[in-house]
Amino acid sequence: MNVLNIHKRVINQPKEDVSKLLTTLGTEDDKIWPNEKWPTIRFKDGLRVGSKGGHGIIRYRITKYNFEDSIYFKFTKPSGFNGHHNFKINQLEPHKTEVVHCIDMKTMGMSTFSWVFIIRWLHDALIEDALDNIENHFSVHRKNTKWSLWVRFWRYILKSK
Predict the structure, then answer these.
(1) What is the DSSP track for 90-154?
(2) Is the pTM of this model over 0.85?
(3) CA distances from 132 to 45, 79, 142 (A)
(4) Are 138 and 13 in contact (CB under 8 A)?
(5) Tens digit of pLDDT for each residue in 122-148?
(6) CATH of domain 2-159
(7) In the chain, where are the structural domains located?
C-alpha cells in the first residue's frame, strides 16, 4: 500500500528560531519530541547522517540532515515499512514558518494492517503533539491537540501489555 502522510503547522516565528528547535531533536534538551506522552526518540550517534535511532517499535537511519531546515530518515523497522519520513522547515514570510512532517512509504504484508488500524492513528497523534510542542515553545497560549477515541483505545491496549 502506498502511504503519503503529511502534517503541517504554521508557526508565527522566523525560520531561524524554529530551526534551532530541530537541532534539539533526540537530545537531553529536546524541544520537539513529546517525551512525556510517547516513547522517547533516540539516535545512537546523535543528529548526523548515518546515525541509527527510533522510538518504540519504529526504527530508522538519518539519511540527510541540514540543521537549518530538514532531517530525513529511512525506515529500517518494522519489516514492511519501505520508505522514509522527514521534518522540513519552510520560511513562508519573514516571521511565518511552516513545519512539515511527511511519511512517504510503501507498506507490505502485516505492516499494511498495522499501519491502517494502529500505527497511523498513533503516529498522527504523536506528530500533532510534537507540533504542539513547537508552537507552545513560542506562545503563552498552550496548544494541546486532543487525541481521538481510537488513539486513547490503542494506548490503553498497548499499555496493558
Answers:
(1) EEEETTEEEEEEEEEEEE-THHHHHIIIIIHHHHHHHHHHHHHHHHHHT-SS---PPPPHHHHHH
(2) yes
(3) 27, 30, 8
(4) yes
(5) 999 999 999 999 999 999 999 999 999
(6) 3.30.530.20
(7) 2-159
